């Protein structure tokens, strides 16, 4: 692809020890004129792979998810930014949709929402909480940026948004064991947020929110149609809810 064919968009990616996944991520966005990878201390080939794909790589010590993505936004060459995690990649349909959107970009639109697809136990999930799971990932930094939450960070935008066709595919883990490790880490962070907010956790909250998470995702949102993978996703989502409140309860008892 000639440089003249590339879109005036910056891709921002935060990474640490992602040599197994970042190559696929980078290959999916070679149509962008600027690719920025912010590394927080990889000891594998992450930096080498990123540089081989033409990315601008810089180091920044880990400050938390939201703050690291804000740092990445500040390094972008262009105001329009598409943010990806290193274990995500853009489908061909989404790449075409982005190019089309920029050929007919309305001045009032400041961000675009993308659907997500999640891979678990050998298949791409199509139901439940896992799909279409829309999030804003393509945005104009003049109209907003990431918040600084340590987890479940999101882009805060002021202005009209639009929707893109296609999706971002998220291949987060190699095994269920790795998935459980991530859940354990994330729920530690979530529990700390609950405690810092001053909200008190009780039995009713712990029980009802966990049960509702399963009923909503597996039954009401048809997660059961994804078979064993759908059941696993709903059960692990329920476990996530249970653990974050149970851990918060445990922390509150120690105060």
Descriptive account of the structure:
The chain has 255 residues and is α/β, with parallel strands linked by helices. It folds into two domains: 3-170, Spore Coat Polysaccharide Biosynthesis Protein SpsA, Chain A, CATH 3.90.550; 176-254, no CATH class. Helices cover 41% and strands 25% of the residues. It contains seven helices and eleven strands. α5 packs parallel to α7 and α6 (203-220) packs antiparallel against α7. The radius of gyration is 19 Å and the shape is globular. It starts with 6 loop residues before the first strand and ends with a helix.
CATH level 4 superfamily of the largest domain: Spore Coat Polysaccharide Biosynthesis Protein SpsA, Chain A
Q: Which consecutive residue ranges, at least 5 long each, have pLDDT under 50?
A: none
What fraction strand?
25-35%
Total count of helical runs of at least 4 residues: 7
| Helicity range | 40-55%
- How many strands, what sense, and barrel or not for the largest sheet? 9 strands, mixed
If you compute it from the alpha carbons, what radius of gyration comes out, rounded to the nearest whole angstrom? 19 Å
The CATH architecture category of the largest domain equals Alpha-Beta Complex
Task: Indicate how many domains the architecture comprises.
Answer: 2
Could you give the count of β-strands? 11
By CATH reckoning, the class of the largest domain would read: Alpha Beta
The best one-word shape is globular
| Secondary-structure content class | alpha/beta
Terminal residue distance: 59 Å
CATH topology of the largest domain: Spore Coat Polysaccharide Biosynthesis Protein SpsA, Chain A
Q: Tell me the series of helices and strands, N- to C-terminal.
A: EHEHEHEEHEEEEEEHHH
Mean pLDDT: 95
């Amino acid at each position: 692809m000639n440089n003249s064919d590339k879109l005036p968009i910056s891709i921002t990616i935060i990474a640490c020890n992602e040599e197994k996944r970042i190559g696929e991520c980078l290959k999916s966005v070679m149509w962008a004129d600027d690719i920025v990878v912010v590394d927080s201390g990889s000891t594998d080939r992450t930096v080498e792979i990123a540089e081989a794909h033409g990315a601008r790589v810089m180091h920044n010590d880990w400050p938390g998810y939201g703050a690291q993505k804000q740092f990445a936004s500040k390094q972008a060459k262009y105001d329009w930014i598409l943010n990806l995690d290193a274990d995500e990649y853009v489908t061909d349909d989404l790449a075409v949709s982005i190019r089309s959107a920029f050929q007919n970009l309305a001045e009032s639109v400041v961000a675009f929402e993308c659907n997500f697809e999640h891979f678990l136990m050998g298949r791409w999930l199509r139901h439940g909480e896992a799909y279409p799971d829309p999030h804003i990932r393509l945005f104009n930094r003049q109209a907003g940026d990431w918040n600084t939450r340590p987890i479940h960070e999101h882009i805060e935008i002021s202005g009209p948004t639009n929707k893109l066709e296609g999706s971002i595919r998220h291949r987060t883990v190699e095994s269920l064991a790795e998935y459980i490790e991530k859940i354990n880490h994330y729920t530690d962070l979530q529990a700390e947020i609950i405690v810092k907010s001053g909200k008190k956790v009780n039995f009713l909250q712990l029980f009802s929110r966990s049960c509702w998470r399963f009923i909503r995702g597996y039954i009401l949102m048809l997660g059961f149609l994804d078979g064993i993978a759908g059941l696993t996703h709903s059960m692990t989502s329920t476990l996530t809810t249970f653990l974050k409140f149970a851990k918060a309860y445990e922390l509150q008892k120690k105060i």
